[in-house]
Design goal:
Order of helices and strands: HEHHEHHHHHHHH
Shape: elongated
Radius of gyration: 24 Å
Strand order of the largest sheet: 1-2
Number of strands: 2
Helix content: over 70%
CATH architecture of the largest domain: Up-down Bundle
Structural class: mainly alpha
CATH superfamily of the largest domain: Ferritin, core subunit, four-helix bundle
Number of helices: 11
CATH topology of the largest domain: Ferritin
CATH class of the largest domain: Mainly Alpha
Length: 327
């Protein structure tokens, strides 16, 4: 589980040289240019005005790449080190365009805003770490360019009517809330709710002792909460990804993990085994549907797909716990 959150073998951003910072920016701009070109093609038939904006953004990303390559050639020569975002701890990831299909304008707009915000964070942090005046100036200029793209992407609409522009401050606040609290909290709730099902119900059916079952559930919930809290806090410092304070994310993940496990452990404070088990089973159903709703509400996952994934996975773990407990 820890390996999911602590990317072993990756370079830390603070350890990158100025040459590697430029090389990483070059590869990132290449990826973004391809993604925007794909968005433009996907939107062209239904939203030609929006597609034109993505064509322009594609050209600008290509121009950024050209400027970065020229700077690398002047400072370090023609041999550009191979370093990509997946090689750097805490570096932002890019969602493939097929994950936002069908290319509804709202889906693409949200993804474009996120992409440009992350690029702005990278150039801002990279500029702080460079001592070469030319490189620092270029990175600062690119940060300003990406910031202007954030505003442009947030205003994308079918006809670019200014009256349809979103409230950027509210959207930024909402995005930060999702990144800092909802995402780690949801991961914790899923881990706490699902991973503790097997030990709790295995203990329940193996012993038919409600108090011992409660103690096992309590220990599993708190232990998982501590583990998830630390691994989330150590996953990245939030500077490049824009995910916010690692301490806040760690608490969100740890608390929700504990809550997820305690939900179906607390009923075993009731002395009657079948009453406690029936209530615990009912709470499990509520937990799984709550996870599906949160995914649908905040993570743009279709509710039925989220429900099928979560309920199916939870049912498997639930069944494993009962089978082991009756073995």
């Amino acid at each position: 589980m820890i390996s999911r959150y602590i990317p072993f073998g990756k370079r830390h951003f603070d350890d990158l040289s100025e040459q590697e910072i430029l090389a990483l920016a070059i590869s990132a701009e290449e990826d973004d240019s391809r993604i925007y070109a794909s968005y433009a093609e996907g939107l062209r038939e239904k939203y030609p005005a929006s597609a034109k904006i993505f064509d322009e953004m594609t050209e600008e990303e290509s121009e950024h790449r050209r400027l970065l390559i020229e700077m690398h050639q002047r400072k370090f020569g023609d041999n550009i080190p191979l370093i990509r975002r997946e090689h750097v701890k805490g570096f932002y990831e890019r969602k493939p365009d097929w994950l936002v299909r069908p290319l509804g304008l709202e889906n693409v707009r949200k993804q474009a805003v996120l992409m440009e915000s992350q690029a702005y964070n990278y150039y801002s942090e990279a500029a702080k770490r460079t001592t070469d005046a030319d490189i620092r100036k270029l990175l600062g200029d690119l940060a300003l360019a990406e910031k202007s793209h954030v505003s442009l992407a947030s205003r994308l609409s079918s006809d670019f009517d200014a009256s349809d522009a979103v409230d950027e401050e509210k959207e930024e606040e909402h995005k930060q809330f999702v990144l800092t609290y909802v995402q780690p909290g949801l991961a914790g709730l899923m881990d706490g709710s699902v991973s503790t099902l097997a030990p709790v119900f295995a203990a329940a059916f193996a012993t038919h002792n409600t108090w011992n079952t409660f103690l096992i559930g309590l220990a599993a919930s708190i232990g998982a909460g501590i583990s998830m809290g630390f691994t989330e806090a150590l996953s990245d410092d939030g500077k490049l990804t824009g995910r916010g304070s690692p301490i806040k994310r760690g608490f969100a993940s740890g608390i929700m993990t504990t809550v997820g496990g305690l939900g179906h452990a607390l009923p075993y404070l009731i002395n009657d085994f079948w009453t406690a088990t029936s209530i615990a089973g009912f709470i499990v159903i509520i937990e799984l549907w709550a996870i599906a709703w949160i995914q649908s509400r905040y993570m743009d996952t279709p509710f039925l797909r989220a429900a099928l994934q979560i309920v199916f996975g939870g049912a498997l773990v639930f069944a494993v716990g009962i089978l082991i407990g009756n073995a």
